[in-house]
Amino acid sequence: MDQPAPIAEPSARRALRDRLAIPVLAFGGILMAVMQTVVVPLLPDLPRLTNSSAGAVSWLVTATLLSGAVLTPVLGRAGDMYGKRRVLTGALALMTVGSVMCALSSDIVVLIAARALQGAAASVVPLSISILRDELPPERRGSAVALMSSTVGIGAALGLPLAALVVQYADWHTMFWLTSALGALGVAAVWWAVKESPVRQPGRFDTLGALGLAAGLVCLLLGVSQGGQWGWGSPSVLALFVAAVTVLGVWWWQQLRTELPLVDLRLVSRPRVGLSHVAALLTGFAFYANSLVTAQLVQAPKATGYGLGLSIVATGLCLLPGGITMLLFSPVSARISASRGPRITLALGAAVIACGYAVRIADSRDLWMIILGATVVATGTTLAYSALPTLILRAVPAEQTASANGVNVLMRTIGQAVSSAAVAAVLVHHTSLIGGAPVPTLHGYLLAFGMAGAVALAACAAALTIPGDDPASDETKHAQDRTRSSRDEALEGA
Q1: Pair (220, 107) in one structural domain
Q2: Are both 210 and 192 inside the same structural domain?
């Protein structure tokens, strides 16, 4: 009598998981970006809702920025050593726990702690890109990595109008219950659909290096993010910058003398890696100014002569075309990188960002021109952000992919923090009184656009100085990486 084949169902289930792995990872990236932006519409009302000061409420953004910057390279390194899916699932779980805490409390201290937990999700994109490198064949890798990189902009564009709608028509805690449910779904989906990567770098985790990097980054980013409020020449800010330089200098010395460092600085010193990090910092600066300035400009009162007086919901909808464009252009970026190389894609993306700011300078009064300029900047950001991880993938060994991409994302984060501070400084120095309140002038906004466009051109120049691709040497290096990983696994098993 014939026996049923027990393998059929498991094989079909495995095939389904393989097909869903990329969409699930992309969902995690979008969810991470949504989590970072949903608090923005709440900021004006939170002092009243939490019985706290505006300065305390600002820490809901600062805490996420600081924890994300610190944890991204740390969790990237942990993923390379202990398993990328395991660490990715943990980061999404921390993000979800933070969302539940926000849903359950109105205490500002609890909310700040919860937002710090959510900062762990900043590592989702570099960890996911590393998994894609390990699991996908080369012909599918480029488009998948480009899509994963674009999720940051897509989620940000979706998160703002979504949060504004919830805040306008429901209790603000409802928004966090919604994101908690989405976070739990993301954790379960990743655990079910994504396979654990077999590529590991064995050894002992560099705890001292992690603590040193954390201390240095907190001092640096705290000084940058709070400089506008505390005063750039204040003793507190100057002390933070001195401490950052001192701690990071000692950390750099320690990393060069550690057998298995948290960040391989010798790898960073290679032109293809180091210049990619410089381009990431400049691109992060140029991209972030678009969201910051557009949101403020369209909400400015009509009495200014240029403002449109739009609501926060309408503002989010103005940024939505940019998010849709990022989704549509991610495969275009992958095709350009495949045919011309990722450094050309990066340079082209930075040039397109500069063109977008030229449109903004030409006309920032008509709504359709504002949307057009913002969408052009988003298009350039898609090209640039999709090319950056591809550059890193081609330049580093397989077992260091997550940590190297984590450092690249860290550089983008620093660029965004500096952009926020620089834009705020420009707008504060160019204001006029409208209804008794200081409001940035159109000239201030145009200066901010010009500054961001100039930085985008600098990113283009940095991209063009990155050494060109050598496919033959890349294949040789990757073959050596695979051999080394197989040897390490055999030794570990023995």
Answers
A1: no
A2: no
